[in-house]
Specification:
Layout: E1 8-10, E2 42-47, H1 61-70, E3 75-78, E4 99-108, E5 115-120, H2 134-147, E6 151-154, H3 165-168, E7 176-181, H4 199-208, E8 214-218, E9 236-241, H5 246-254, E10 258-261, E11 266-271, E12 275-280, E13 288-293, E14 299-304, E15 307-311, E16 318-325, E17 330-332, E18 336-337
Parallel strand pairs: 2-3, 3-4, 6-7, 7-8
Antiparallel strand pairs: 1-11, 2-9, 4-5, 5-6, 9-10, 10-17, 11-12, 12-15, 13-14, 13-16, 16-17, 16-18
Length: 344
Amino acid sequence: MMSRVTLMHFSFNHCPAGLTVLAVAAVCLGAAFPCSCNAGERWFRGNLHGHTTNSDGKLPPEEAALWYREHGYHFCVITDHRRLTPVEPLAHVQTPEFIVLPGIELDSKPGGKNVHTCGINIRSEIGPQGGETVPDALQRQVDAIRAAGGVAMINHPNWTRAFNAEEVLPVRGAALLEIYNMSSGCENEGDPASGVRSTEQMWDWLLTRGMRIWGTATDDVHTYVPGHPDGPGKGWVMVRARELTPQAIASALARGDFYASTGVELQDLRVGRESLALKVRPAAGLRYRIELRGPEGRLLEVAHGEAARFDLSGRTGYVRVRVLASDGSLALVQPVFLDAGRQE
């Protein structure tokens, strides 16, 4: 039976002043996370994918973490390749308003394809996982991350054109999919001439077939030079949680209680049983296109301007909102599932 969605009003009174805030909650009918905004909850900005000199990054862990702290983030996850970088030695960098989560980036190369996942807030080291095929490698990595207590994110599928949506669909237990990995070479937009889907198209393909997986934007940072093509501060998530702790952040990510952004901010979001309304926090000189998309990524409605209200009555499957600014930055609201679908 389909659950009811209560009218929600997301306000921003609890968000720290000066913070880039996009109030977008993943909301659904019959899904696995609550559809209410409780008093005392806040939005926390964070980067989920970053490297240090413990793998192929250009800064040691302390300096990498400091970059994010000094640029208004509440958390970052250190995801060095094939190793868990301890965060305990970074205690002096952490404050009541900034924490560092332990993580890892796993990799396998079945058939010469680069298959990577991030483990977020893992409790222990994870060794090589192998895998004979892409789905097998992904499943092994996801299972190992979950066994280590972490949240699994499937990384940059179009980097080196490693794998497609059909190879992701069989995987169970992955909470997150990188939609906008902002490092160079990740081909987020795909290659239509070669039949390569964009990562958003891949996401819609998976959602349409019942996979409930949340979309992220990340830096995948290696160098910390401002303005560098692989520099930081380009893609992030904003996580809604009651407290700034590793467990609270990880739990919110797993249930989809966050948004992805490459720069667009929202001022307000209201989701009810029959409607979804939002208002952009405008930036000087920018224009906005607000899209409601449904199964297969089909464009259902579009509004131009800083506010929109979409009627959800009579719709099936899922809907999601995409806000595009005239400078190319965007925000992705997590999908609203309108009927029963595959549960992980």
